[in-house]
Design brief:
Blueprint lengths: L3 E4 L6 H11 L6 E4 L10 H11 L2 E2 L3 H6 L10 H13 L2 H9 L3 E4 L2 E4 L15 H7 L7 E4 L6 E5 L5 E4 L2 E3 L5 E5 L13 E7 L2 E7 L3 H11 L3 H6 L5
Parallel strand pairs: 1-2, 2-3, 5-6, 6-10
Antiparallel strand pairs: 1-11, 4-5, 7-8, 7-10, 9-12, 11-12
Length: 240
C-alpha cells in the first residue's frame, strides 16, 4: 500500500488548504487524495480548485461541488449553503466549472474505495453517523479501506474480524483481518469542536488523524469582503 495524505471538504478556504499542503509536504507521503467539496461556504473557490488540481493525484465530487455544477438539487442544502452556492456560481471560472461537472462520484485506487459521502449511495449525500449505518456501509465496498468526508468530523471506523465496529479519533493500526471506513474530516470548515484543519495520513501500516492550525482571521476577513453569511464566518472560530 502506497503512503498517502487524504483531504476533504476544503470549502474554498485557501488559508486552511495552504496550511494543510505545507504540513503534507513534510509527511513524506507518495500522493494526496481529495474526497470532494472543493467549493461552498468559503471565499476562494477558484484559488482552491487551481491548487487542488495541481496537487491531488485523485479527486472525487462532493455535494457542494455537485450543486455548483448543477448536478444536484440546491434545495437540499441549508439556507446559508444555498446563498454561497449561488455566489460561487457567479465567481467560478468556466474552466473550473467544467472541471467540477466532470468529477466522478467514486474512484478506486489500489486498496482504497474513495467517495465523498457513503459507499452505499454515493450520490444521495447521506452520512455515516451511527454504528448501524457504519455496519451497513461496510457491505458496499470490497477494499480494505473506504475513504470518506462529508460530515466534517474526522474518525476511523474499524470492522474487526469478529464483526465488531470500533471507533478511533487519533490513530489506528491497519490489521490484515480488519476493514476500515476513514473520515478525513474537513480542511476548510471542521465541525467537531476543533477549529484546526484536519486531514489523514496513511503510512507504514498506520492511519493517523492530523490537525493543523491556520490563520482563521484571514479567511473570515475575505468572507466578510465577499458578503458571505455572518453565521458561516463566525463558526470557523469554534469548529462547530
Amino acid at each position: 500500500m502506497k503512503s498517502c495524505a487524504v483531504i476533504s471538504d476544503v470549502h474554498a478556504n485557501l488559508a486552511a488548504l495552504e496550511a494543510i499542503l505545507e504540513s503534507i509536504s513534510k509527511d513524506g507521503v507518495d500522493r494526496t487524495l481529495f474526497l470532494g467539496d472543493a467549493v461552498g461556504y468559503g471565499p476562494e473557490p477558484n484559488e482552491c480548485l487551481d491548487l487542488l488540481r495541481n496537487q491531488a493525484a485523485v479527486m472525487v465530487m462532493g455535494n457542494h461541488d455537485s450543486m455548483v455544477a448543477g448536478k444536484s438539487n440546491i434545495m437540499r442544502a441549508g439556507v446559508y449553503a444555498r446563498e454561497v452556492i449561488g455566489w460561487t456560481r457567479d465567481v467560478i471560472s468556466i474552466d473550473n466549472l467544467q472541471f467540477l461537472q466532470k468529477l466522478p462520484l467514486v474512484k478506486y485506487e489500489e486498496d482504497f474505495h474513495i467517495v465523498h459521502a457513503t459507499p452505499r449511495e454515493p450520490g444521495e449525500w447521506n452520512y455515516i453517523r451511527t454504528r448501524l449505518e457504519a455496519a451497513r456501509n461496510f457491505r458496499y465496498f470490497n477494499t480494505a479501506i473506504c475513504l470518506t468526508g462529508h460530515s466534517h468530523e474526522p474518525q476511523i471506523i474499524e470492522l474487526t474480524a469478529k464483526g465488531a465496529v470500533a471507533y478511533s479519533y487519533r490513530k489506528a493500526v491497519i490489521k490484515p483481518d480488519s476493514r476500515f471506513i476513514v473520515n478525513a474530516g474537513s480542511v476548510g470548515q471542521p465541525r467537531d469542536g476543533i477549529p484546526e484543519a484536519s486531514y489523514i495520513v496513511i503510512k507504514n501500516g498506520l492511519i493517523e488523524i492530523k490537525r493543523v492550525a491556520y490563520d482563521i482571521l484571514v479567511t473570515q476577513k475575505k468572507m466578510q469582503e465577499a458578503g458571505l453569511p455572518s453565521y458561516l464566518i463566525s463558526r470557523l472560530s469554534t469548529g462547530k
